Amino acid sequence: MEEDGALDTTYDPPPDASNQQQLDIVRAALAATLNPRIPNEIRQQALHHLEKLKHQPDAPHYGYTLASDVEQNDDALRYYGLQLLEFAVRYRWLEYAPAQTDQLRAWVLSLAGNLRDSDALFLRNKIGQLWVEVAKRCWGEEWMDMDELLLELWEKPMGESGVVNKVLVLYVLEMLSEDIVNNEDAVAGLRLEILGAALNEIMIPHGLYEEHARTRPATRQQQEVRCGDQGWLARVCGFFAECMKFVRMGGVPEEVQSMTTCAVKALNALRPTMAWVSLKAAVEANCVDCLFLPFHTEDAALQTAATETLYVLLCRQYNAHWHEAWSHLQLQALRPDHITMIRQTFERTASSTGDDEAAYTLQKMMAESLSLLADAVSQHPLLIEGGKLDLPMLFDLLLYVLQSKSLVVSIPVLHSWSKMMAVQDHTIIDMVLQALGTLIQTCSERLLRYELLPSESEDEVVRFLGEDFDTTPERHAFLGNYRRYCTGIIQAIARSRPMEAMQHVLEQMRSLLHNGPYTSDRGFETETYSRNSMPVLQFDAQFNVVSSALKGFSLWCLDVAVLGQDEPLYAKAQADRASAEQSLQEWSYSVISVQVDDPEVAAQVLQTLVLILRTVKSQPEFVLHVLQHLLTMRLDDDPAHTAFSDAVKGFEGLRVIELQKLALVFANELLEVYDELEPRIVELVQAHIDDQRLVWGYRSFLFMIIHRAKGLDRETRMARLQQMLKPVYEAWQGPDLTRSAVSLQIFCESLALGDLGDFYKAYRFDQIQDWSAHQLDEAGQARQQMVKDRGDLIPLRMTKNMLAATTEKLKPSSEEYDTASALWSDIIPVILPTLLQMLRHAQAFHNLNNWSHLPDELQAVIRRTLQDRFWQSGISNESKEDFYARISGSKTSYEGFASTVRGTMRNIREQGYQIIYLMTKFDEQFYSTESLAVPLAEALFADAEALSANHLHPIINLATGLVSRCPPHYRERFLPPLLIQLFTKLDAKISQEWEAIGAAHDRNATEADELGDEMRVESVLRQLTFSMVSFVPFLLEYDRQQQQPTPPLRNGAAATNDSSHHHPTLSEIVLSDPSVLEPLMLFCTHALRMRDTRCCTIICKAFRTIIPLFQQTPPPTSPSSASNNDNTAQVREFISTAVLQSCITSLHDPYFADMQKDLASLIAHVILLYSPSTDTPQEVLCSLPDMAVARVEKAFARIAKAGGSERGMRAVVLELLEGVRGVGIYEAGRIGVAGAGTGAGAGGGEAGKRGVRREYMEIEAGPARGGEGEEVELEGVAGLFGEV
């Protein structure tokens, strides 16, 4: 190896005197930057000088001189010298002549060859990085002897320089695998074919290399890069085995520690290699046995590193082409002695929370690997053949890990068990059957809502959760997924063994009912009632068990229903089903007789009974018996105890829902007793006359029976239904209602809010800080009640309930559909004008411009009134139940009044949205309404920017429904006004909110409450952005995803126009109408800069769909072709400027580091498809700082030559914009192997204090609402393009 540092004259080094003077200046400047006593102005000057030096021609010479002079320079100076060399290699390599690049390589090799064991680790790593950076640029072409040099370093006796050379080589091998194969490295991507082949050739063992050498291309025969017979995979495995032998034998502690370090470094080098190397190579190198060697020790850190490496290897997907090698590796890992080692290690490392961090980390990693092995066995039962596996031992270990008190440890195995339930192999089925008892018991126990238990609980599961997750939101998300797997397993067990499973889970529920403290006789007290008490949570868990089991039983019923009468199992299946249904009915009768005083438990008992009723082939008498129980069950309210009273109200609401479910399924049976049923419902209506929700829920129940039952003739049915709907007809035709919607002021007056400013002034709202602590007087409470009552007088709830009852599970072309259409066809045109005006005013109420007549202090009160208190799944630090309790406790306070005001407006808006959505189920009656689109768009979007982000989700949901339900022949007329307003208003709102979030982050608020509010607001904004971003691909792909692009109308009628006429698809409407396309494109462009990686990824994919559609100007074929051509050219220019600029700007932003692949691909496609038609992409790129035209032209040519290779084109873009990118994808921090590190959620952020796989941390729940029905739970590079 060349070790002298002789300068090549092409670098034109300065004279010795000048050289020494410059070095002295560097030393002084670096010292100034590190000295805290130096004035900031001088420090900045020193930093500027050091940065400027990197660009000087002789910078590499200075770098080598500083880095190599061990005697005179300290570590800081040497590191700066390495930075100078790194800058030359990374940013100026292409500017150098061959002699200069040879000299750079010689200097790097010299530094590597002269490393000492005493050198600091960061210096050794930087030299290793330099080696890899040079290799990525010339190895395999100009530099052919790299492997020989690595082997020379490797074989140097450890007695001379310790282990430093081996550690360096291992680091180089690790980084080569990472950058060439695993990571999206731009430089490596440009030479991927050469580097990939070279890396493979030096890695694979001798036998595989011999086979490879015979088949490789002729061009590679002349370019030998490999040195030695062994190959690095086998060589490193052998070295690792030697290290482990030394560690096991023991000896001088310092030497043992040194060899342990070497073993870990060897594993670090093997880990990225396992992700890509041929499985045959892993077999030949005996990798699996090698990785189990640490289990002969008790070193948890070594075992964890080995398990992580094994995990990467086991993650390799099965393919028939490498069946033999894949099976060999799996069988090696599954050998009984290896399973025994894992079991023993699990038992040895079992600990309580906080006892041993390293042991706990090892347990989680072993569980992940064990899950992969279980999946391999269940998905590839051929592994079982041959008798090499001890399946009882393996499945016993799976059960053991499943029962770990740490749910993070058990969840990978739980997931595997859930997948095993669907396996059809008889051997696996036998093993699963033996485990059913433990499975159902464990899963039942784990359905407890641990997040509702107090953090100080002694329950070991709760303590582990506290250790594993920093925040309540993380814990909520994780537990939701854990319970999902548990319910899936219970469902599968009940499907495979319905008799035993149902008997077991129902008996447990009955035992709880008979023995639990759910009645006053057994200790139930309304005074101390809590929905989060342990008895209530235990019953809730058992209810979820029973619900899952009943779903499984339903699936089993469907399975046996397809059996033919001549099949052997038919008779037994029918007998079993009859027996099971009889048992379910008997259980139901026994439960009906049990008294329950707990509202939560009573509600779940009702749900269980109705679920059973809908599951079995129920006889009429059984249906009526359950119905009678639903109608007669009583819970006495106790308003003095708020928690209990709220639970009773919840029970009453659920009772109505369950009755409606029965009406849909058993309308015929209920019609038989309708004359007896109606008086009882009337009584219930009178008992709850103050609660319109219940009143119209009960009336809807009766309506559904008459509408769906078969035993009535059409005239009788229509007459009775029209009589039931008469209050709706009359309410919307009343002149008072129409007048109340004439203007915003009159609308407010109709709701007792006309003098809201005077009321606030009289009660000094502007002078009180804590509204929750101040109670309204009697007059104030009376005013609050008046607002509620006036809101209830608007016929929204009755209309929504009756529409929902009419359309629920309504089949198009059915008699019920025709009846529904006839009922609503005349009233829909009457409802819509007034309804749209109300929606317009309920939105305008939030526009502060409409309150500008008030004094500033009262405008501030209005602004505060409109601010929601919300609970957000995944963000809020309190449970949903605690949130409800807090809201409920402040109903009569000043905050409660504000809550009533905004809740009234929200109810009007959201009930109105629901009414409109339900109307869309009547295609012709709704969409044929003349001149509806424009006023509808105005009502939905005119003041949408004034609403807070959490109130915009319903609008987007409604817009989605309006678009998807619109018949094709109405699309061109109906949809453009809606889409224009939607994208224009929501783009402005969302962009404004992201700017506000950015400003809040810049302020760096330190108050915990402020930070909590910011987190909740940001979470809601992310969800809103995701909803809106997802709407774009919905529009572009909707028709393609439909099996019938132009489905028949839901009422079965023929279209009113010629059916042979081609109706434009949604994407055609969006992309061909400039008035729609422009706001859509603007929103998508802005979304590229919104700091949410999930949303940005979706938009990148959407642009990838859009860009090819405007690649070429269509030929002139019609008089309108000129305007189409202009539109195509304008879109192409917009994408080539604004979209391209946004991509480059985001590429510069470190926040988007993980998105650089997507952004670079998008940039590459703009260049590839548009540069032949326009020079704009080149002009935009040339406008960047220090971007030479020749460099851009060369990059464009390379993209054109890449032949559509995604990685090749991305690599060109990333290399071209290397100086613009804020941070490389993998420069911000090393990325751990899958499953070994923490996963980032949508928009970034870690998934928890400890590593938990991302799939177990996905948050599925959306915003929730509570309280009075209104509270929602819920300079960088700006100048790059010459803009300020």
TrEMBL record:
GO biological process: protein export from nucleus; RNA export from nucleus
Molecular function via GO: nuclear export signal receptor activity; RNA binding
Source organism: Friedmanniomyces endolithicus
Positions of region (Disordered): 1043-1064
A Pfam family that the UniProt record links to this protein: Exportin-5
Lineage: Eukaryota, Fungi, Dikarya, Ascomycota, Pezizomycotina
Protein name: Karyopherin
GO cellular component, one term: cytoplasm
Domain Exportin-5 C-terminal, chain residue ranges per copy: 357-1217
